[in-house]
Amino acid sequence: MFSGKRLKKIREEKQLSQTDIAEKLHINRSSYNKWETGVSKPNQKNLVLLSQLLEVDPSYFESEHAIVASYLKLSEENQLKASAFVNKLLSKQLQEERERKVLELFPVRVLRDVPLSAGLGESYYDEYDYETVYTDREVSYDVAAYIKGDSMLPDYLDGEVALINETGFDYSGAVYAIYLNGQTFIKKVYKEDAHYRIVSLNDEYEDKYAYQEDEFRIVGKVISHFMPVVGAGGVS
């Protein structure tokens, strides 16, 4: 990366003013000043002219020049040692940065005893108990419940939390939390003529159907899902 500071340093060492160099390059002083202040950098032609005028290699103006120049003077054996040392320092630095990084967590109140089944179904209760889990994403929702089973694999995992908006039926093919004949599920739902077709993502599960005589309702649309952050939070 071009370094305006190194350009200024060598210019001052040569006891030249910005105007001196600008005139020799046939540019105005303002344009030259932008190189030293980092606002812009010289094109390849002017970079070569600068190096000739200031009697340095074009690579001198790179901010990494001093490090690279010293590295290239090392023997092959010492270059290997230097590379190993730099990699060790970088790994340590990255580790420290990860440890310093504070992960912002957001609480979610989840139905504890009424998991919305993604498998064979769970009973639906009017009295709820909740617990608080945490996620690294903030999402607006109405109801949160655990997913159980494998019928919605690979997208929805056993133990994840589903976030639900109580919007009723929105459109065919969306994923909903539904109540069907005493059980609750998370499924894709399609409205077809006088009935609903209830579909699992896992092909091992057959479609279900809800007809007019069934006890069926849409709890809400699943808008997001996540695996709770391990080691965070408690029961409320």
UniProtKB/TrEMBL annotation:
Pfam families: HTH_3, Peptidase_S24
Residue ranges annotated for the HTH cro/C1-type domain, each copy included: 7-61
Keyword vocabulary terms for this entry: DNA-binding, Transcription, Transcription regulation
UniProt-recorded Gene Ontology molecular function terms: DNA binding
SMART domains attached to this UniProt entry: HTH_XRE (SM00530)
Record protein name field: Pleiotropic regulator of exopolysaccharide synthesis, competence and biofilm formation Ftr, XRE family
Organism placement in taxonomy: Bacteria, Bacillati, Bacillota, Bacilli, Lactobacillales
